[in-house]
Design brief:
With about 500 residues, this protein is of the alpha/beta class. It folds into 2 domains: about 1-265 and about 465-485, Aldehyde Dehydrogenase, Chain A, domain 1 (3-Layer(aba) Sandwich); about 265-415 and about 420-455, Aldehyde Dehydrogenase, Chain A, domain 2 (3-Layer(aba) Sandwich), CATH 3.40.309.10. Helix content is about 35%, strand content about 20%. Helix 3 (about 95-105) packs antiparallel against helix 6 (about 195-205), helix 4 (about 110-125) runs parallel beside helix 5 (about 165-180) and helix 9 (about 275-290) packs across helix 10. Bound molecules: nicotinamide-adenine-dinucleotide. Nicotinamide-adenine-dinucleotide (NAD) binds near residues 159, 220, 247, 264 and 392. Nicotinamide-adenine-dinucleotide (NAD) binds next to helix 7 and helix 8.
Length: about 500
């Protein structure tokens, strides 16, 4: 682990709420501080939305849907506006990358290499969709013309977490706008700035006022006010399982449509015939990328007995080479944890791992410097029944578990309340396909870990990983509904 330092100045974006095409103060006048987790310093005071603002934003979105130009324009015109939005994002690349890195403490090199291109790709992909969302003519009988049209669901409330603020915001905004919906997006309180920046760029690109509203504020207040607003037609949530469950419950009286992208405790299986160099490298990246604050982090590393000891030694050696430090330094691989609260949660899990008898082999102690830094941490001799193997830690903590054979590997892997992703490393093609089928996960990686693409659906197979899919053509189902039209041809 190498610790680096030195801040860099960044031009800050808007800090007010975006409602109905204008940046405004919260009705209460309240603000909250967003901090740089690498320095613990306040970056900016941001307007703090509450119920009154949520209600205003939903009204603005409804008006834009029903009275504004958005609902009346040609699909091809909507597509052109989204292309201009993508162009604005490309033009402001440096600003977006800098703000994303500063607000979330994300290493600037990985934001430039991963988050930014993924967000841009997402808007470019969905900008191609508006005039290709078609319906079906279904021939039922000769005296009727019967068809199924796809219509926008309407006003969408999107609530996103802090670990990929730019990307997760775009995963909601792009398909929803492509489908002709309007949106109120609530970013996480820890990372409101890139969402506000996207709001400004959307306006500049010609997205009509009220189509995209951005509402920073606390979950329990701004977030819940959106969920409980009966005028919201769809809730698209990415975040933790407990909040997902609370949202489902709160939305029940209105039977609001829901997509829930929740947590993970993903198993990553290393077989004794795997390319061990590649498996060590991929598994370390699988858990330490973004300091383990990744829903699909490969946090349970399952290793076959004959190679267990060698794999553990090499994983530990690799962990020690990871550069932890100032996110503004191009060489940094791992930045800080997002907040003191999250750091406390993670260290609580590390204590639990030690108490339960797992072997802490590297890391585990906060780095002695300003900022919420924790080094790569590896536990070996972990049992799948231990707390560190069952619960989502959301930090750079690998739990390495031993297994005997394929059946035991699948049993351990599937023995979890989560179902988001899984990895497996083997040279046996038959085993790869067979296990891809048997592993209970929305995404299975073979001889790689962590890849995703705009064109491929992303989400869990139920339980604490949630339901529904972001991305791909599938996400269009989140933001459209089907309408049956029956025209009598009798005369
Ligand atoms: P979180 O659930 O605490 O917060 C997520 C969002 O919900 C934030 O905007 C927050 O302000 C809001 N919120 C909090 N309480 C709320 C409430 N009562 N009502 C309405 N909104 C509320 O999650 P987090 O700590 O920001 O993010 C980490 C979690 O997100 C992890 O569990 C991670 O696995 C999950 N995640 C999942 C995916 C995925 O694609 N499946 C992607 C990224 C993160």
């Amino acid at each position: 682990m190498t610790v680096t330092a030195s801040p860099r100045s960044v031009q800050l974006p808007e800090t007010k709420l975006l409602i109905g095409g204008a940046f405004v103060d919260a009705a209460s006048g309240a603000t909250f501080a967003t901090r740089n987790p690498a320095t613990e310093e306040v970056i900016a005071q941001v307007a703090q939305a509450a119920r009154a603002d949520a209600d205003r934003a939903v009204k603005a979105a409804r008006r834009a849907l029903e009275e504004g130009p958005w609902g009346k324009m040609r699909a091809s015109e909507r597509a052109r506006i989204l292309v201009r939005f993508a162009d604005a994002i490309r033009k402001h690349q440096d600003e977006i990358v800098a703000v994303e890195s500063l607000d979330g403490g994300k290493p600037i090199a990985s934001v430039r290499r991963q988050d930014y291109p993924a967000a841009l790709d997402c808007i470019e992909y969905y900008a191609g969709w508006p005039d290709k969302i078609t319906g079906d003519v279904v021939p039922v009988r000769p005296d009727a013309h019967t068809y199924v049209a796809r219509v926008p669901v309407g006003v969408v409330a999107a609530i996103v977490p802090w670990n990929f603020p730019l990307m997760n915001s775009m995963w909601k905004i792009a398909p929803a706008l492509a489908c002709g919906c309007t949106m109120v997006l609530k970013p996480a309180s820890e990372t409101p700035l890139t969402a506000l920046l996207l709001g400004r760029l959307a306006l500049e690109a010609g997205v009509p006022e009220g189509v995209l509203n951005i509402l920073p504020g606390p979950g329990v207040d701004a977030g819940m006010s959106l969920v409980r607003n009966p005028d919201v037609d769809k809730i698209s949530f990415t975040g933790s399982p407990p909040v997902g469950k609370a949202i489902m419950e709160a939305a029940a009286p209105f039977i609001t449509r829901l997509t829930l992208e929740l947590g993970g405790k993903s198993p990553n299986l290393i077989f004794d015939d795997a390319d061990i160099d590649a498996a060590v490298k991929g598994s370390a990246a699988g858990i330490f990328f973004n300091a383990g604050q990744v829903c699909s982090a490969g946090s349970r590393v399952l290793v076959q007995k004959p190679i267990y000891d060698e794999f553990c030694e090499r994983m530990i050696e690799r962990s020690k080479t990871i550069v932890v430090g100032d996110p503004q330094d191009e060489k940094t691989y791992m930045g800080p944890i997002i907040s003191q609260k999250q750091l406390d949660t993670i260290t609580g899990y590390i204590d639990a791992g030690k108490r339960e008898g797992a072997n802490l082999r590297v890391g585990g102690e906060r780095v002695a410097r300003k900022g919420y830094f924790l080094p790569p941490t590896v536990f070996t001799e972990v049992e799948n029944s231990m707390k560190i193997a069952r619960e989502e830690i959301f930090g750079p903590v690998a739990a390495v578990i031993r297994f005997k054979d394929e059946d035991e590997a699948v049993r351990i892997a599937n023995d979890s309340p989560f179902s988001l992703a899984a990895g497996l490393w083997t040279k046996d093609i038959g085993r790869a396909h067979s296990l891809a089928n048997r592993l209970h996960a929305g995404t299975v990686w073979v001889n790689t870990y962590g890849q995703s693409d705009t064109r491929l659906p992303w989400g869990g197979l139920g339980g604490d990983s949630g339901m529904g899919r972001d991305l791909g053509e599938t996400a269009l189902d989140n933001y459209t509904d089907k309408k049956t039209i029956w025209i009598s041809l009798r005369r």
